[in-house]
Amino acid sequence: MPELPEVETVRRSLETLTVGRRIDRVDVRLLRIVRRPNPVEFMARMQGARIEAVSRRGKYLLFDLGHDVLIVHLRMEGRFGFYAAADPILMHTHVIFHFKEDMDLRYQDVRQFGTMDLLAKSDLEKFIPLSSLGLEPLDAHFTSAYLKEKLRTRRAPIKAVLLDQSVVAGLGNIYVDEILFAAQIHPERMASKLSMKDLTRIVDASVEVIQHAIQLGGSSIKSYVNGYGQPGSFQYALRVYGRQGQACLRCGSTIYKGRVAGRGTHVCLSCQKAPRAATIR
């Protein structure tokens, strides 16, 4: 699933490609991608709309259409591509935004898990997936004090809590593993028992890892590409994720893989000391 760095990279490419363009019409080829309103109203309301801006909140893309806002979640393998109108339509293309300049913005999704919601701007604050999101790692208010307040009653592994979008928006499995490795904190440590020093390391690692990933255009582990069809390159800078059985780049010990919070989890047991109840040892 694209995480914050990938979605931010997509946002930046779409901002360049689409802002200022007017939508001539929209073709919804797979109706269930559109959650609200119904697909007929969705297509009608977007006809003639001008894309004023493309922003992001957590893993959500937001297209400013004037009175309305289009909210897109790419889920597992959703992607946008910019094409000439005459270009062949590729398989798994489910929504096409036709522009007046004979250009298309096409949404493809092999897994068909992505979603689109069209809301009036006045209703945006009531849209629960967005209103319930926590702070993002690059937010100036994302501090050890913020984490301390969010974690003080959480009797769960720190990895599970960092994956909770109401605590930290935009993180997923890849970047939580990378952040905890950089912070030298085992993913199964109890969130509520972490010290302020631990939390400061997590905050600092979050900023470092996410900024670096954005600079490199995100991680193309499977099918992710930006709006230009270009893959990211942060996968070549990963220090723990996907490196099970290999030597730790910090201490030379073997990287192990287990499961935490139902997710495959990569850890160096020398750099990230395990708590007594840990299952990854």
Average pLDDT number: 96
Widest sheet: strand ordering? 2-9-5-4-3
Helix percent band: 25-40%
CATH homologous superfamily assignment of the largest domain? MutM-like, N-terminal
CATH architecture of the largest domain: Alpha-Beta Barrel
Count of individual helical segments: 7
Oligomeric state of the chains present here? single chain
What coarse outline follows from CA principal-axis ratios? elongated
| Top CATH class of the largest domain | Alpha Beta
Estimated radius of gyration: 20 Å
Q: State the end-to-end distance.
A: 27 Å
Could you give the count of β-strands? 11
The biggest sheet amounts to:
5 strands, mixed
Strand % is 15-25%
Give the H and E element order: HEEHEEEEEEEHHHHHEE
CATH topology of the largest domain: N-terminal domain of MutM-like DNA repair proteins
Overall SS class: alpha+beta
**Regions with little confidence, pLDDT below 50 for 5+ residues:** none
Number of discrete domains: 2
What does this structure look like?
The chain is 26% helix and 23% strand. A hairpin with a 3-residue loop joins strand 7 (93-99) and strand 8 (103-109). The protein is built from seven helices and eleven strands. The strands form three sheets. It has a five-stranded mixed beta sheet, covered by helices on one side. Helix 4 packs across helix 7 (196-215). It starts with a helix and ends in a 13-residue tail after the last strand. The protein has two domains: 4-131, N-terminal domain of MutM-like DNA repair proteins, CATH 3.20.190.10; 144-268, Helicase, Ruva Protein, domain 3.
